[in-house]
Amino acid sequence: MDASFDDPDYDYAASVAERAMRSMAEQRIPATPANFAVWFQYFAGSHDDLRNAIDLLIDHNRPFDVRTNQDLFETYVAPQVSAIVVDTSERLHTLMGAAKDFLATAIADNHSQMQAINEVADQGKAGVDPKTLVAQLMNELGRAATRATRLEAGFTEKTRELDVIRASLSKSEERARTDTLTGLANRRALDEFLHKAQATADWGEPLGMLMLDIDHFKTFNDSFGHGVGDQVLRLMAKVLREKVREQDLSARYGGEELIAVLPDADLAACAEIAERIRHAIAECRITRRSTGEVLPHISVSIGVAQYRPGEAITDFIERCDRALYLAKNSGRNRVVTESELDRTGGSGLALNPPSSFPPRRCRSP
Question: Which of 68, 289, 320, 344 sees the fewest Cβ atoms within 10 Å?
Answer without folding.
Answer: 289
